[in-house]
Amino acid sequence: MDSARAQLEELKIKVTQANLPSEVSEKLLNLLQFSGSPAGGGAELASLISYVDFVISLPFGKYSQDILDINRTKQILDKNHYGLQSVKDRILEYLSILILHKNTAQENNFHAPILAFIGLVGTGKTSLAYSIAESLGRPLVRIPFGGLGDPASLRGASRIRPDAEPGQIIKAIKSAKVSNPVILLDEIDRVAVEHRVDIMGVLVELLDPAQNQAFLDHYLDFPYDLSQVLFIATANNTGNIATAVLDRLEPIIMPSYSDEEKLIIGKNYLLPKAIEEAGFSKDALTIDEATWPQILRPLGFDSGIRSLSRSLQTICRKVARKKVEGEVGPFRISQENLGEYLS
């Protein structure tokens, strides 16, 4: 018992020394005051310590400073993405509005639109979100919605449950270490059908500026201000997204890549990256011009570049193995020997 009381006193000191909002600090101190010696013994005390430590670790009042430089954003978008000019223009328009609202009387009342990149697999939706975060200088945390089946995984579970833990949204805030990260809600159209209504209800609250300034995670049991978070969503299509969620999104339709665009992306972006990942020099591998069409379309038309990226990674892995097994190279991929490198 003495050990438990000592640990509770240590927690009280940690709470008073932490830079917490007064209402949160008061809530924790009251909780510790009335806990006494936890009746559940070690398990209950461990749960209490875990809860207090988690709350203390949240970045209350900590914000990253936005880099609002439209020319820098142009450079980052062009560096990371070939083509997609209409999409890039929309992102630059979005950033322009942020710049105009900065340091004005309207800034505190301004709520950025929630961008939603809609398109087929491999068209660059997720990577665009990372580029936006990079251009703003904000950390990005991705929350995958594919197969998500329990709203509690977003909103957290009450601490009266033995398996209670915070939801993914609050975990993302803790991971980012600031209260204004970019949170990527990835593939929001792919949640489990039986829980879609409940999960869409949580999304409405997250994306509504009137509600997300006091988002209630059931594990925390007090509201947390998410109004400065920049949410970005992605989806393959809008058919499985609730109308109330769509009303809070600004959809940007991702175009499919033409073969010409994929050829340039493959040569200038994906192949150098695959070679670097495989660990050999770019001089060790060449691909004949006549061979590229077979690499671009191994199974017919593909709107994105994900399969192209996988094909080039496969080729580079084969080359890496040949080098390790003693073949000197350089290695030339032609129509005649492509089958050795790519099934």
TrEMBL record:
GO annotation terms (biological process): protein catabolic process
InterPro entries: AAA+_ATPase, ATPase_AAA_core, Lon_lid, Lon_Prtase, P-loop_NTPase
Positions of the AAA+ ATPase domain: 111-259
One family name in Pfam for this protein: Lon_lid
Molecular functions per Gene Ontology: ATP binding; ATP hydrolysis activity; ATP-dependent peptidase activity; serine-type endopeptidase activity
Name of the protein described by the UniProt record: AAA+ ATPase domain-containing protein
Organism, scientific name: Candidatus Daviesbacteria bacterium RIFCSPHIGHO2_01_FULL_40_11
